[in-house]
Design a protein that fits this description.
By secondary structure, the chain is mainly alpha-helical. Helices cover 18% and strands 6% of the residues. It has a three-stranded mixed beta sheet, covered by helices on one side. A hairpin with a 4-residue loop joins strand 1 and strand 2 (104-105). The longest helix is centred in the N-terminal third of the chain and has 13 residues, at 2-14. The chain is globular, with a radius of gyration of 15 Å. The mean pLDDT is 87.
Length: 143
């Protein structure tokens, strides 16, 4: 609960908010209804995002990995390491679970199962966790 309150306080202070789940899904999915932002197929193409792959296994990640994928980042990657989507948004696939207004989205560098990526509810507990983060949105007003 404490991290969620701290995130909410930051958003209020900054004049921003967390995205609603539907907003995050639409933005991550490039405005399409595909199962994943890159389309309906599995596995993800190279360069899609930071997911559990050969790089994660090199640092000792043993839960599982996506065969044939190596993004070069064993754990979290610095922001902006993967191409922007058609909306100009970076790192919408993997890296860290992202808090939304009620649930978490994205999947983290620890994810290797299609059922745990993108428009799925994250089950991670809120709290200090190197695979959990957030991004904010700002509502624009028309003049």
């Amino acid at each position: 609960e404490q991290p969620a309150r701290e995130i909410a306080a930051f958003c209020t202070w900054a004049g921003m908010r967390l995205p609603e789940e539907e907003e995050w899904d639409w933005a991550a999915g490039n405005g399409r209804d595909d199962r994943f932002p890159w389309g309906p197929e599995w596995p993800p193409p190279a360069g899609t995002g930071n997911l559990a792959d050969a790089a994660a296994t090199r640092i000792g990640w043993w839960w599982g990995a996506i065969a044939g994928l190596d993004d070069g980042h064993g754990a979290t990657a610095p922001a902006g390491r993967f191409p922007a989507n058609r909306f100009g948004l970076l790192d919408m696939v993997g890296n860290v679970w992202e808090h939304c207004a009620r649930e978490m989205r994205s999947g983290a560098w620890t994810e290797f199962r299609p059922s745990r990526l993108m428009s799925r509810r994250g089950e991670e507990e809120a709290g200090p966790n190197p695979a959990v983060g957030f991004r904010v949105v700002m509502d624009l007003t028309e003049k």
